[in-house]
Every structure is written in C-alpha cells, then in structure tokens.
From TrEMBL:
Name of the protein this chain belongs to: Sporulation protein YqfD
Keyword terms, alphabetized: Membrane, Transmembrane, Transmembrane helix
InterPro entries in alphabetical order: YqfD (IPR010690)
Residues annotated as transmembrane: 85-106
Protein species of origin: Aliibacillus thermotolerans
Alphabetical list of Pfam families matching this protein: YqfD (PF06898)
Length: 393
C-alpha cells in the first residue's frame, strides 16, 4: 500500500463530511499530495512532511480531522536510533576500536642479523619508537627509520624496512670483512685412526704411504719435509687422505611395536584469538572426553579483519580420539628399523663428507622382549690429523 513514497513523505488520513472541500483547497493552493485514495468519509494520501502545517490550516477551516498513519523513513530511522541508542553507540565504538587496532604495531621482526646485532637493532628501533603497542601513525616514515638505523648502527651494509598491516619487518645485510690469511706453521699430516688407505690427495708435502696400505694412529701420511739432508725444507703439509675405517653399532628394538591409530570419534572446541590473548567460546573441555587424543588447530580470520590485517581470528581445535595397538612385527621389518637407527647414530660420529660404504648384521639375539642386533659398517672418511714439526727434528 502507498508504494513509491520518498524518504521524507508521510501517509496522512483525513476524516469528515467536507472531504471535497479539503481536496479542492489543496488543488487551489497547489498543495502537493499524491496517491489519493477515498473510502466513504476517509481520504488517504501521501504528502511531504514540510507541507503538514499547510494541510493543517486547510483541514482546520472544515469540520474534518487528520492524522499521520505512517511516519517517513527518516522519522522511523530517528525513532529506531533513539530506541536502540546503546546498540549504535556500541557499533560505533567497535568500528573505532577496529580502526585503531589496525593502526597499532602487533609484531616486529628482524631478519638476517646474528643474535648480538639483532639485540642492538632492537634497542635502536625502540629508541625510534617502533615497538609492540605503539601506533604507526605516530612514527616517522619508513625511509627516515631506515636512514636513522644506518647512521646509528655499525656492522650493517643495508637495512630494509617494510610495514605490512600491523607488522614491521627489518631485513638486515651484515658487513663481511675478508679474513686475514695466516701462514700455517710447519706440520706433518698423520693418521688419527686405524684404516686402509683408499685415496691420497696431496697439495703440499711428501707422501709416505700408498693406497691399500694399513695404517695405525700416529703413522705419518704426508711429511712436512721437502728435500733431503741439509737442503730439506719445512712446510705446512696440506692434503686429504681418505681411508676405509670400521664401526660397530648395537641396536635394541622391542619385539612389540606400539602404533597409535584414530578411532574416528571427533570433538571440536572454539576460541577467539586476539593477538596473543585467547578467549574460550565453546567446547574448551572436549579434551577430557577422550582418554587419548590427537589435536589439530585451524585458524580462520573474517574477511573484514583479513583486509585490515587485524590480528583477530577464530581458533578451531579438532580433537581426534586415538588408541594404541601392538600388531605383530616381522623380523625383516625389525632389521630394517635397526639399520635405520644404526645409520642415524653413526652419522652423528662421522663427518658430513664421510661415505658409508657397506653395512652388515653380525649378530642377532632376542631377550627380555627385545631383539639385540649388532651391525658392522665400512666407512670411507678423512683420517688425517695435523702434527706440528718441532724444531730440531
């Protein structure tokens, strides 16, 4: 009913016996009324609220009465705001807080610096004012921050400053000075362990061993003397001698392996994450409903907060019930696990450049619910050790 009225127009109802007089007077005085509908002694029409006083004078001269039966959009809006003023104030405060939080620094990252330099940079940027909790609009520009850091700090070649949402990132390039080369003192290269010579790479000095030769700790491999007799010259022997060495590892593995599997029962808990503060919402005691659980967390951020880069998100933790089983294990699988563990332990003892040439199970024995496996390894590694030449040798 009465569609198509403007935001400031109201619906008026006029009652009385002299309705024709009222309508004629409206036409004579060019009073704009529209959508006029008459029903016996009642007329309903639409009129702009600023003409209500003029309509009142016309109706007053007749024996009719009038009333507003439907307020304008603006009047309804004002009434709604007045009735729910608390809600609208809360919304305004919330939006203002979101805008304010988006201008606050929530995180400061420093990359590319060693711990000592990182501490020094942290102190420098705090003096400038860049720290968690400060407002970014109160800070100097990025170029000015970069210039101040380069002037204050020594030991850096370049520093990049980026602002991404509520995070300030500092990328640092440290100064690298060439190392001063020191002349090494005269020395021999000797064997540091028992081995069979695999290969010899001599840069300086006299080679005293051959390939496939068995050497023991302390045997000289590359001498630091060049020449013979009084013409002999002492140098710092350099090179690399690779030898075949041997290691033995003992691994104990339980005959029954425990395996955790999921039952399919799932519970979820929800929490509101605001920066580092977490506010539980629902299901925060779900963990207690399972005897054994495997939790996984998912963070979801509303599109509005993601656009403004405000650190407010919804944390969803999924609790999956699990149970422990002990299925039978084959001997071959146990041997495979033993070899993997043995290799892992061996790699902790040898250098990264060493090569495991071969592995062989020497002994296997079951006792006290475990299987004991002894593994022998052949390794190719550098066996050289530096021995200083004492004057007078």
């Amino acid at each position: 009913m009465m569609n198509g009225r403007g935001p400031s127009e109201v619906i008026v109802q006029i009652r009385g016996e002299q309705l024709e007089y009222v309508l004629n007077e409206c036409m004579k005085t060019n009073l704009p009324i529209k959508h006029v509908q008459r029903n016996n002694e009642t007329v309903t029409c639409i009129i702009h609220r600023k003409y209500l006083s003029q309509l009142d004078r016309i109706v007053f001269d007749s024996d009719c009465t009038w009333e507003v039966v439907s307020l304008s959009f603006f009047e309804k809006y004002k009434l709604l705001v007045k009735e729910r003023i608390g809600f609208f104030i809360g919304m305004a405060v919330f939006v203002a807080m979101m805008i304010l939080l988006s201008q606050m620094i929530w995180k400061v990252e420093i990359r590319g610096a060693n711990p000592a330099l990182k501490h020094e940079i942290s102190q420098a940027i705090e003096e400038i004012g860049v720290s968690v909790g400060k407002f970014s609009f109160l800070l100097p520009g990025l170029e000015e921050i970069q210039s101040q850091l380069l002037d204050q700090l020594e030991g850096i070649t370049w520093v990049g400053v980026q602002k991404q949402g509520t995070t300030y990132r500092f990328e640092v390039v440290e100064q690298t000075l060439p190392k001063e080369r020191e002349d090494a003192a005269p020395r021999h290269l000797t064997a540091k362990k028992t081995a069979v010579i695999h290969s010899i790479y001599a840069e300086k000095g006299q080679v005293l061993v051959e390939e496939n030769e068995l050497v023991h700790p302390g045997d000289m491999l590359i001498s630091g003397f060049i020449g013979k007799g009084k013409h002999a010259k002492m140098v710092a022997a350099t090179g690399k001698v690779l030898g075949e060495t041997w290691y033995q590892a003992t691994v104990n593995i339980p005959l029954k392996q425990r395996v955790d599997t999921l039952t399919g029962n799932v519970e979820k808990s929800y929490a509101l994450q605001i920066g580092s503060f977490r506010l539980p919402i629902w299901g925060f005691s779900q963990e207690k409903s399972f005897s054994s659980v495997a939790p996984s967390e998912t963070m979801k951020q509303p599109a509005l907060f993601e656009k403004w880069n405000i650190p407010i998100s919804l944390s969803i933790v999924t609790w999956n019930e699990s149970q422990s089983l002990s299925p039978p294990v084959k001997r071959e699988d146990l041997r495979k696990v033993a070899k993997e563990r043995g290799r892992s332990e061996l790699k902790k003892k040898i250098s990264d450049e060493a090569t495991i040439l071969n592995e062989k199970i020497l002994h296997e024995q079951s006792e006290n619910g475990k299987v004991k496996i002894v593994i022998h390894y052949q390794v190719i590694e550098d066996i050289t050790s530096e021995t200083p030449i004492i004057r007078g040798e």
